[in-house]
Write a structure and sequence with these properties.
This protein is mostly helical and 459 residues long. It has 3 domains: 224 residues, Rhopdopsin 7-helix transmembrane proteins; 93 residues; 120 residues, Homeodomain-like (Arc Repressor Mutant, subunit A, Orthogonal Bundle). Helix content is 76%, strand content 0%. The chain is built from 20 helices and no strands. The longest helix has 42 residues.
Length: 459
């Protein structure tokens, strides 16, 4: 039973974790515009690690390679390329600046350790490559070199000097942003299990440790994706509100928000096109709600979508969308019945003046003096949002400002929430971050773009 468990941990667990690291490689490739400096080094490490994790199974395939051949290939990939690349990548992500000479020195040190490992392992395992080249019997000339512990010592030295040592320095370096912490934790865990497995000669431990790294990195990537979706949802909502509002000021603000949307697309034109098509679809729905002929809207939408697909840069795409927004504004202006009603204007004014208080739909209805059902229907039709959604957007936008100088609890009560826990839940759903994470981001990255401020249309 012990042998079967060791076999599973040594050969099957790596095959489980390898696809996850391949997924991480794909993710880093997709966001490479955001991590342009670190990306080549993370990619190098992940490729090397995938080779290490999947290499063990090659011993059971008819490759013509011996177990020692496969071992040497895997260790050259890990020590010569993977660990040096990871050292540079985590350093850059932690804010450390490397000169070209320093990077070359790190890789040169990794190459030196790789040669030392291969030489010592070749001698200890009796592979015979160096012995045949030098025509020497090392077991007679230098018996100490024939000990496998020499190779193990080189492996531990490489892990400590290129992985765990630097990572500890990066983790405790002043001013570290919270984002790299999970990545650094996963790296440290991998190095720790690698050292422990080498010392105990329990070779399944490093592969088991790779699962811990998967958990660290996977959770961080999920958080990043969730945060990005939250920012994207806020931005799309504001774009639609601005488009419906119309006017010169709204058009200028709409153009600025389109630039924000382009930034969130990480420079990927196809991703930007995808998100713009969603905006165009929403604008088409707004035109239909404005009682514009549906057939005309469908044809126009098809033409604009085709223009987006044929665009070659973001400027062309922005021109198409801005033209469509102007057309929507003109269409709404030409239909007085579709302009904002007096009741909705009063409701918006009441929300903007009192959103920091403990108010709800009943308070808005009482202030406006119309039936609840008619106000809810008119508000949704004319603003594109429910009263509660509009109230929440006002509160979260104000909270983003207050969190820079106030505690989470103070902010929650200041913007109209009675419970800081519920405030945190709503804030995270809207922005993709908890209030505490948002505060840390503002402190660590003062130049970072702020979340879009949601402002319902002015009455």
């Amino acid at each position: 039973m012990q042998l079967s468990w060791e076999f599973a941990l040594r050969y099957l667990v790596p095959l489980v974790s390898a696809p996850f690291f391949l997924t991480f490689l794909i993710y880093f490739t997709l966001i490479r515009k955001r991590i342009a400096r670190e990306y080549p080094y993370y990619a190098c490490f992940l490729i090397a690690l995938i080779i290490v994790l999947t290499g063990g199974i090659l011993a059971f395939l008819p490759t013509g390679l011996t177990a020692n051949d496969i071992l040497f290939v895997r260790m050259v990939a890990l020590l010569g390329f993977g660990l040096p690349a990871l050292c540079v990548a985590t350093g850059l992500q932690s804010g450390v600046t490397f000169t070209t000479a320093q990077r070359n020195l790190i890789f040169a040190f990794g190459t030196l350790l790789t040669l030392a490992y291969v030489a010592s392992a070749d001698i200890a395992l009796g592979h015979g490559l160096l012995a045949s080249l030098a025509n020497l019997d090392y077991t007679t000339v230098a018996p100490a070199l024939a000990e496998v512990r020499i190779a193990h010592a080189v492996q531990i030295l490489a892990t400590v000097s290129l992985l765990n040592g630097p990572v500890l320095y990066f983790l405790f370096r002043p001013g570290l942003h919270p984002r790299p912490v999970a990545y650094l934790g996963g790296v440290f865990a991998f190095g720790f299990f690698l050292i422990l497995g080498t010392l105990a000669e329990m070779w399944w431990l490093p592969y088991t440790g790779s699962i811990v790294s998967v958990l660290f990195w996977g959770l961080q990537i999920v958080r990043e994706v969730h945060h990005m979706r939250g920012r994207m949802a806020l931005l799309k909502d504001e774009l639609l509100v601005l488009a419906r509002r119309g006017g010169t000021e709204a058009a200028a603000e709409f153009a600025r928000r389109l630039e924000d949307l382009e930034e969130l697309s990480e420079g990927h034109l196809d991703v930007y096109k995808l998100r713009i098509r969603e905006i165009l679809a929403a604008l088409g729905e707004a035109m239909i709600e404005a009682e514009i002929d549906a057939d005309t809207v469908v044809r126009r939408h098809a033409d604009r979508t085709r223009a987006i697909d044929e665009s070659h840069d973001a400027a062309e795409i922005r021109a198409v969308v801005n033209k469509e927004v102007a057309h929507l504004a003109d269409a709404l202006a030409s239909r007085p019945a579709q302009r904002r009603s007096h009741a909705v204007s009063r409701a918006l004014a009441f929300l903007q003046a009192n959103f920091t208080e403990n108010i709800g739909i009943d308070d808005v209805v009482a202030h406006v003096g119309v039936s609840r059902s008619s106000l809810l229907a008119a508000f949704k039709r004319e603003t594109g949002k429910t009263i509660n959604a509009c109230l929440t957007d006002l509160r979260i936008a104000r909270a983003c400002e207050l969190l820079r100088t106030h505690s989470v609890t103070e902010t929650a009560f200041a913007v109209g929430f009675n419970n800081s826990g519920y405030f945190s839940t709503v804030f995270r759903r809207k922005t993709g971050q908890t209030p505490t994470e948002y505060q840390q981001a503002q402190t660590s990255e003062p130049s970072r773009p702020q979340p879009p401020r949601i402002q319902p249309a002015s009455p």
